[in-house]
Amino acid sequence: MPQRFARLNIFARKPSGIYRLTIDEGSSTAATAAIKTNTKSTQLTLQHLAYTLFLATILTQTLLFSTLVNAQGYLQSALESTITEEIIDPVKRNKQIIDAHPQADALKVLADASPYNWVPVSRLPEDLLGLVQPGCHGLYIDTSEIPDNLDLTSLLSPESQPLIIEADHASLTAGTQAEIAGNVRIIQGSRSISAGKMTYDKASDSATLHDGVSIKEPGIQIKGESANISTTANKGQFNHATFIDLDTHMRGSAETIEQLDASKILLINGSITSCEPGSTGWSLQGKELTVDREKQLATGRNVQLKIGEVPVFYLPYISIPVGDRRQSGILPPSFNSSDNASIDIAIPYYWNIAPNYDATITPRIISGRGTMVELQGRYLSNWMYNELGLAFLPNDGGNQDSDIDRLIRSGQTSEELARPNKGNNRWLAQWQHEGGTASGLQSNVDYTRVSDFDYFRDLGTASLSVNSRTYLEQTMELGYRFENWRISALAQSHQVLLLDIDSPYKRHPQISFEGIQRAGDLKLSISNEFTSFKHRNDFRGDLTKIITGSRFATDYRLSWKKNRSWGYFKPEVGYKSLNYRLDERDLKLENDSAFSLGTGQVSFDAGLIFEHPEGKYLQTLEPRFFYLYREYTNHHNLFNLGNDGQNINFDTSSRTFGYGQLYRDSRFIGGDRLDDANQTTLGLSSRWYNNATNNEIFSVSVGQIFHFEDRRVLLENASTDYDTENSSEFAAEVEMNLGSLTKVYLNGIYDTSNQEINRGSAGLQYIKGQRQTLFNLSYSFIREDSDVLVSEKIDQVDISLVQAVKQQWYLMGRLNYDFHNDQELDAFVGLEYNDCCFRFKILARRWLDSNIANLVADKDAQYDNGIIFEFELKGLGPLGTKLNTILSDGILGYDNWQ
Q1: 730-737 vs 742-751, strand pairing mode
Q2: Is the domain of 297 the same as that of 398?
Q3: Eight-class DSSP state of 539
Q4: C-alpha distances in angstroms, 274 versus 101, 278, 297, 315?
Q5: How many domains does the chain have?
């Protein structure tokens, strides 16, 4: 049944004025009113009244207009009173800015005059230029979102608006036909149809529009020379027409555009593109192209991909997304190659199984190795997220690497050492899980494992994401959180992918109970942790015995903190204990297998804040005092165990000293040492704030630890060789924010006894304009420490740049140089072209060959050289993805800059 209107307004434009006929549903009479006249008010003639009554009758019985408009009983006075009360859903930011712009009406006129509602940059107000996308020469304007003459009723939902028909004149023909001519407009809220002339045939329930037809609604507009519309089936046919999807910027033209339903259009002998109007970039041309706005999908048969006017590819069928909704289909492939003739091709297929789970299947062809496949699956529910990753390469061919072949021929290495995995099956397994319920139950899984430690160096990944490529974690945790307490059970192990590094102990299991209880300014924190340490090996790489066992650790603290505007103070007392039970088979008879140690501690932390206004800036001076005392407890039961004289160290290492270490209460990471302490830290910070914005623009902090006693607890057994330094190194850090987009940092560690800098780093990041300049400069220095078993001098600089050199052209580069070994670590230079239609990047890169890095000395390191490119047709996706990964990893801030 066709819907009827509660109220229908019909306007007629005459030389003497504009008239409105209002018809209320169920009323047997019509009320007429003069809205506006040039000279005087005039009533509609009986002829006009008879016509409008007939037209109103046939229009209210048609599905065409009933789907366009439904007044739902709103009277005009009631509608006006609810304008300020109805909640208007926000649209895209750009549309909001344009709608509210003082020149919105002028922009609407310009956009309506364009086939695609495109306004060039030269006609845009200066304050709207920031909305123009990088590389584009104009802006799409959705005129349906701009209120007509600032009539706020058009911002309400169209279904709540009255139907308005405007025309210069009208006539009745053949009894069942009505003809409206001269600037015909059919309007309801933000939806409208306009034409030079419209003929309606009641017998066939169809309307024919001529002399330039335009249909507009939010997000999409169709324009054509003429159109035939079935008013009962919500279908239409537009001849020599164009369309624009203003949400996705997909546009097209065709001999015929058929409106199949409210969300789907069919282009016959047409083309679609996302290039800006006037561009001869890329297009998909075919006999039949369908755009489904509801499914956000464009499909076509017998399609040609054209670059300009040149066909470059033929596709019997194509399916591409035209929105943000996920679609099944082939994703852009990636092609990677290097100067040793190695080629890696990956063609991922995305499978949108359901709204809450999907999969990506990626076949890869790697020259010299064979064919492998990667699989990624994701699942989301109300209380968990799961991501599964699998990869498999059968019978690895060993790779075609000319540098390795040269080393083998010269006798510097052997085939077995250079290609240890040749002929092996290689694989990767990954599971990421996060779960939780409102009741407090929590679960987490982070599991990644590979077949061998050369996996990432040889194969990498095409579609899988791995957080670390040196230590792979296998962790499963289940916990329950109460209001102030938490209990959890964890199982954890690691796979180490570095040579000559022993694997960490397994935690099978680790059970924790911890919580915090507050009472005013008092805070009680309790931590209890039981861990069973196991190991996958019986011996270390040096053939010493690996001792296993369990540890129960406690850490109880009571603190009281008082904050004031002028500073704070926080006293704290606590007690820590360790309880061990070691496997007796690993010990000597005189070693204790079960023992305990514990110690109490007290600390006091206080700081002051002095403020000094200086014009438009505020300077602070912030001295800080921190005292820590922890009683010494004998650790002799942890040393010289077993026949090899081993030390117990399940998970503990020394912290690297830096500014952040000044106010910590332990010099160790892990739980196997209760370090003694009797020390004071004195620190001083100063900050400068902008009074207008309250932003911090400059800060400098310095500090040093002063020891009152020797440190007797060390990682290794040292009964007499204590740490006897009276003070720590001098630590400092500086940060500057020179404007919102320029940042400078410096930090360093100065050895006062040797009067030299042991560690330091400095950096600068400068960003100018929107996609104009991105510059990074960083320097790192670490002095070689002979007292540390594994320590190597680091003296490196890293410079990177992205610079706009001309409209739509960008230069990019990076140099990562090692002064200590006098060699480049990574260097590249590239060029990018980016407009509204294409994006093309090419990069020449030189980097250390990771395949032979472990086979030769640093001074003999070989380089790989490669040229990598990425070509993107805007709207279709990129061809190749590795280049963007290189730029994101090599240029700090590149992801945000682009």
Answers
A1: antiparallel
A2: no
A3: B
A4: 26, 11, 14, 18
A5: 3
